[in-house]
C-alpha cells in the first residue's frame, strides 16, 4: 500500500494506492498545511509514503510534522537524470519541479509514444516527452486562475470576476476569461506542434476542466497524473530497495 502526496502551491493532494488502484483521495489548501496532522492520522500505518513538494520549506516541515515517526522512511521524489523509464534533458536536472518529474513518470507509465504532458495548476506546465521516454523540455506559464488574478491585481479597471469564454468577447469579464484560456490553449497547441502528429496530450491539474474544452488536440484527461507518477516511483523504489 502506498500513500502518495503532491504538495503544490495551491493545494496538497494525496491518494492511497492499493491493489492497482486508488482506494481514496483527498486535498486541502496549501495555506492550511497544518491540517495535514489530522489527515495523516487516517493513513494506513503500514503504507509506503511517496512525496513531492514544490511549495517550499515551510510546507516540507508541515509534512514532516504530520508524518511524525514515519517521516524518515518517506521517499521524497528528487528530479534527476533518469528515473522510472524517464530521462531528463533539463539543465540542471534537479531544478525541475518534483511535480513535473512525477507527472512525466506517470505519463511514461501510461503511454509509450511521444506525448505532451500538461499540468494546469497554480502554474501551467507543458512538457514534451519523446517516444524514448526522454523529457526534451517544456514551458512554465502562469496558471488559468493566476493569470486572471494578476490582471486584477496589476490594473485599475480590471476586476477579478467570472466571465464566459467566447471567440470574440464583447465585455470586460468575457475578455479576461477568454484571454486567459486562449493564452493557455495557445501555448499548449504551439508546443504540441513539436510532437509527431496524433500524439496524445495528457492533461491533469485543478484547472484541467477549464482548459480541456478549448484544446483542439487529442486530449486525455487524467485526474491526478502527479499522484500516479509518485505511486509508480514508490513501487519502483520498493522493488529495488
Ligand atoms: N474544485 C475546483 N474547481 C475549479 N477549479 C479548481 C478546483 N480546485 C482547484 N481549482 C483550481 O485549480 C488550481 C489548483 O490546481 P492544483 O492542480 O491543485 O494546483 P497546484 O498543484 O499548483 O497546487 C487553482 O488555481 C484553482 O483555481
Ligand atoms: C512550475 C511549478 C511552479 C509548478 O508548480 P504548481 O503549479 O504545480 O504548484 C513547480 O513545478 C516548480 O516550482 N518548478 C521548479 C522550477 C522548474 O520546474 O524549472
Ligand atoms: K502545475
TrEMBL record:
Substrate binds at residues 90, 97-100, 172. GO terms for molecular function: ATP binding; pantothenate kinase activity. Keywords: ATP-binding, Coenzyme A biosynthesis, Cytoplasm, Kinase, Nucleotide-binding, Potassium, Transferase. The keyword Lipid metabolism does not apply. GO terms for biological process: coenzyme A biosynthetic process. It is found in: Cytoplasm. Its cofactor is K(+); NH4(+). It catalyses: (R)-pantothenate + ATP = (R)-4'-phosphopantothenate + ADP + H(+). It holds the Pfam family Pan_kinase. Homodimer. Belongs to the type III pantothenate kinase family. Catalyzes the phosphorylation of pantothenate (Pan), the first step in CoA biosynthesis. HAMAP family: Pantothen_kinase_3. This is Type III pantothenate kinase. The lineage of its organism: Bacteria, Pseudomonadati, Pseudomonadota, Betaproteobacteria, Rhodocyclales. The gene is coaX.
Amino acid at each position: 500500500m502506498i500513500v502518495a502526496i503532491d504538495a503544490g502551491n495551491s493545494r496538497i493532494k494525496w491518494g492511497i494506492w492499493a491493489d492497482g488502484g486508488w482506494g481514496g483521495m483527498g486535498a486541502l489548501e496549501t495555506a492550511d498545511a497544518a491540517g495535514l496532522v489530522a489527515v495523516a492520522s487516517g493513513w494506513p500505518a503500514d503504507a509506503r509514503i511517496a512525496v513531492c513538494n514544490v511549495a517550499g520549506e515551510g510546507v516540507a516541515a508541515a509534512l514532516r510534522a504530520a508524518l511524525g515517526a514515519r517521516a524518515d522512511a518517506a521517499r521524497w521524489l528528487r528530479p534527476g537524470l533518469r528515473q522510472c523509464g524517464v530521462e531528463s534533458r533539463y539543465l540542471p536536472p534537479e531544478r525541475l519541479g518534483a511535480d513535473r518529474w512525477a507527472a512525466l513518470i506517470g505519463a511514461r507509465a501510461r503511454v509509450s509514444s511521444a506525448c505532451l504532458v500538461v499540468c494546469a495548476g497554480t502554474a501551467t506546465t507543458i512538457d514534451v516527452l519523446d517516444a524514448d521516454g526522454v523529457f526534451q523540455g517544456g514551458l512554465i506559464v502562469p496558471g488559468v486562475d493566476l493569470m486572471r488574478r494578476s490582471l486584477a491585481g496589476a490594473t485599475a479597471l480590471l476586476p477579478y470576476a467570472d466571465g464566459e469564454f467566447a471567440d470574440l468577447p464583447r465585455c470586460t469579464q468575457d475578455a479576461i476569461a477568454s484571454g486567459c484560456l486562449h493564452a493557455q490553449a495557445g501555448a499548449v497547441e504551439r508546443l504540441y506542434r513539436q510532437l509527431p502528429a496524433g500524439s496524445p496530450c495528457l492533461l491533469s491539474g485543478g484547472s484541467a476542466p477549464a482548459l480541456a474544452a478549448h484544446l483542439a488536440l487529442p486530449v486525455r484527461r487524467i485526474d491526478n497524473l502527479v499522484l500516479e507518477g509518485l505511486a509508480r516511483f514508490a513501487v519502483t523504489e520498493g522493488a529495488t530497495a
